[in-house]
Specification:
The chain is of the alpha+beta class. Helix content is about 30%, strand content about 25%. Helix 4 packs across helix 5. It is globular, with a radius of gyration of 18 Å.
Length: about 230
């Protein structure tokens, strides 16, 4: 098992990657990885169309590294959730505020590739408002990638047996993003790669029975009594 770079004395030791416990963060990572793959748009649009709503350079998103104490505390909560969820003996609950989400992006090795792509701006009734700066692959693959800079809304759909993550809206100041691009994102379950058999997050995702927004918190629950297992 790989250990984090920061020394963390007296931290509870629980098997597993601490980032896995914070599934909403992992879902965000899956989403942004997924969006990049839609850059070529399945061959529907040409390179010049992508250029109309993207930029040549990345617009940096904010980052909240926080203190070592904050990150240690958050990791301990994530590890506790992960352990209970995977054991499936008792109900597990994880509450995450907007700062928790950003601390995880800034510190978790699992989310290294997302650090320059996403910043959580606000938790809203409809979903998670994010600032984004994502590389978009081009049909002319020999050219440098362009970047989709702007904001978006992540929506979570969950039940006792299903969990989906979708990008409902994307906006870029001064640009009109093609309707077809947004529709493809909104229709796609961007967690699909992580639900495949033997995927890194498969067992944790299957253990989750609810992901919901309550005020300024994201609530993740894994309750074996509600899983509907026979």
């Amino acid at each position: 098992m790989m250990s984090d770079k920061r020394p963390e004395p007296d931290e509870p030791q629980v098997a597993g990657n601490p980032g896995i416990g914070c599934v909403i963060i992992a879902m965000a990572f899956a989403m942004f990885t997924g969006i990049a793959t839609y850059g070529i748009w399945a061959g529907i649009k040409q390179d010049r169309d992508i250029a109309t709503f993207t930029d040549k350079a990345r617009i940096p998103v904010p980052s909240e590294l926080g203190t070592a104490e904050e990150w240690t505390s958050l990791k301990a909560r994530m590890k506790d959730f992960e352990a209970k969820a995977l054991q499936g003996v008792e109900a597990a609950r994880l509450e995450l505020g907007i700062r928790d989400l950003n601390l995880a992006v800034a510190n978790s090795d699992l989310l290294l590739e997302s650090r320059e792509m996403v910043y959580f701006k606000n938790i809203e009734k409809e979903g998670l408002r994010v600032a984004i700066s994502m590389p978009i692959n081009r049909i002319a693959f020999w050219k440098e990638p362009r970047y989709l800079n702007g904001t978006g809304l992540i929506v979570i759909e969950s039940s006792e047996t299903q969990l989906f993550l979708r990008m409902k809206t994307v906006e870029s100041p001064g640009k009109t993003i093609e309707k077809g691009f947004i529709e493809r994102l909104a229709q796609s379950d961007l967690l699909a790669p992580y639900k495949a058999e033997d995927a890194p997050l498969e067992k944790v995702i299957k253990a989750i029975t609810s992901v919901k927004i309550d005020g300024d918190k994201v609530i993740i629950e894994a309750d074996p009594a509600k899983r509907g297992e026979t």
